[in-house]
Design goal:
This protein is mainly alpha-helical. Helix content is 74%, strand content 3%. Strands 1-2 form a two-stranded parallel sheet. The two termini are 21 Å apart. The chain binds zinc ion. Zinc ion binds next to loops.
Length: 241
Amino acid sequence: MLQGLTQLLELQRVDDELVALQTDYDGLPGHRERIEAERIACDEQLAAAKQALQAAEGGMRQAEGALQDREALLQKLESQQFQVKSNDAYTALLREMDQAREAISEHETKILEHMDAIEQARGQLAEIEKHVAETRSRLEAERRAIDARDEECTREIARLQALRTEVSPGVERELLARYERVAKRRRPSVILVKEERCGGCRVGIPPQSFIEILRAESIVTCGNCSRILIHADKLEPPAGS
Ligand SMILES: [Zn+2]
């Protein structure tokens, strides 16, 4: 009679859990990278919105400066009106004054445009600040969840590996070796047979093999998928029953 069939199934259960945990654990760095990328994108969005507002405010200051210059020029030209001696000089002065008024009007229009741009930039910045605050708190929660999962996986993997070390010696050497080989390619690698059919690949078990499974004196594997076949009746009843 093969030794350790029950332990073999227990080992398989432990290994299934280990595979799932390890897959989860291996996915954590990728998750952390996605969080970091999102955090950087948030910072960039915020910086761009602040820069847009600064640019709009800078444009405003420039337009105001230009307006003041033209207003000062117009004032100066106006004060010269009564000092000109010739008609030509007067005509030239009037033309200069007209040009200054035109420039003033243009700058005033620009200032209005800049005011609109500033208002829009402030609105956008407020929206982005809100979005960034929400995203940052979500990312922080995700980061904490990953840290917790990391710890949990590490702890569980260690516990299961210890359990594995405990269970493995109960399985006879050849059976264990066969299991390890099959498990590398196929999971589950041990099939609890209930009918004359492999539960892994659904292919029928030849009568002679089925008899051997019932005897459980040698390792029987599926001719199609190589999984180890065990009959449910050959398992030891759970301890205490
Ligand atoms: Zn099979």
